[in-house]
From TrEMBL:
Belongs to the LysR transcriptional regulatory family. Residues 9-66 form the HTH lysR-type domain. It comes from Caulobacter segnis. SUPFAM superfamilies: Periplasmic binding protein-like II, Winged helix' DNA-binding domain. This is LysR family transcriptional regulator. Gene3D superfamilies: Periplasmic binding protein-like II, Winged helix-like DNA-binding domain superfamily/Winged helix DNA-binding domain. Coiled coil: none annotated. Keywords: DNA-binding, Transcription, Transcription regulation. PANTHER family: HTH-TYPE TRANSCRIPTIONAL REGULATOR, TRANSCRIPTIONAL REGULATORY PROTEIN. PROSITE patterns: HTH_LYSR (PS50931).
Length: 305
């Protein structure tokens, strides 16, 4: 593949190529780019015509890069990196408190702690368009999937070197069950107290660490919200962040199990993005809020039972 041929291509050509290559199908690429199926097919056909080679092998299971396509990929990723670098540098000079701000954070933090604060920030800055990506996955800040990531970090050494981070309060986890189930256990009522788990196999160690011993087959919840709902219903006991369990009036800590620190909350940004006014405003705002939540996050604010 000649370099001058690649250099004649625009970024718009390349992003279609990358979307198909990474998604493995035209359908996945169309969804990622927000266009229809026919548009992707047309753009790929035009690209192959301009290059004079087939860059994808069309199989029943999807699209696979040809040898020529693998060569194109090397140059395409270089162009993508240059595009993102240019974008973040320009973005870093943007000092207006307006525009799009993408924030990614775990679902528990969004729904059980920070949503009132995110709402307050939105009211304070009505010209900032806020997009919340509530996920536990690590968003790719380098590729601008998010401007700010709020993450639980156990070991700071695991953070990518290109990210700029600010450490917040430490986070503790405890074992919780419904207050009704705890009352029945204390009164001597018989019954199985199941361990409620998400994706764990077997019975976790915390199930037998305290005065109440979880027995029987685990109750498996598909996600965190279902896990909390199951605990409220008295199915058994489960491990939760203290800021979730202690704030829930229907739940109580399992006796004999002390909260355990699991790492800290970090507020992360990347490159020039952190210099924009809207990002700096948000980081200052959310860091102050998190500092105020330190006792709750560390499990120090639970009331006695």
């Amino acid at each position: 593949m000649q370099n001058r041929t690649m250099s004649a291509l625009g970024w718009d050509d390349i992003r279609y190529f990358l979307a198909v290559g990474r998604g493995g199908s035209v359908r996945a690429a169309a969804e990622r780019l927000g266009v229809n199926h026919a548009t992707v097919l047309r753009r790929i056909a035009q690209l192959e015509q301009r290059l004079g080679v087939e860059i994808f092998e069309k199989r029943p299971t999807g699209y696979r890069l040809t040898t020529a396509g693998e060569e194109v990929l090397e140059f395409a990723e270089q162009m993508e990196a240059s595009s993102h670098q240019l974008e973040t540098r320009v973005l870093g000079r943007d000092q207006s408190a307006r525009g799009l701000l993408r924030v990614t954070l775990p679902p528990f933090l969004a729904t059980h702690l920070l949503m009132p604060d995110l709402t307050e920030f939105a009211r304070l800055h009505p010209d900032i368009e806020i997009e919340i990506l509530s996920t536990g996955d690590v968003a790719n800040l380098t590729n601008r999937e998010a401007d700010v990531a709020i993450r639980f970090v156990v070991d700071r050494k695991t953070l990518p070197l290109n990210l700029h981070g600010m450490a917040g309060p430490q986070v503790a986890g405890g074992v919780y069950l419904s207050r009704d189930l705890l009352s029945r256990w204390r009164s001597g009522a018989e019954g199985i107290v199941r361990p409620i788990v998400i994706n764990d196999r077997g019975v976790p160690d915390w199930a037998s660490a305290g005065e109440i011993r979880a027995t029987g087959a685990p109750f498996r919840a598909p996600d965190a919200e279902a896990q909390v709902a199951a605990a409220r219903q008295g199915i058994g006991m489960t491990r939760l962040p203290c800021f979730v369990g202690d704030a829930d009036r229907l739940l109580a800590r399992a006796p004999g199990v002390e909260p355990r620190l699991n790492g800290a909350i970090w507020v992360l940004t990347q490159g020039e993005t952190r210099k924009t006014k809207r990002v700096r405003l948000f980081i200052d705002f959310v860091s102050l809020k998190l500092a105020g939540y330190a006792p709750l996050l560390m499990g120090l604010s639970a009331s006695g039972d």
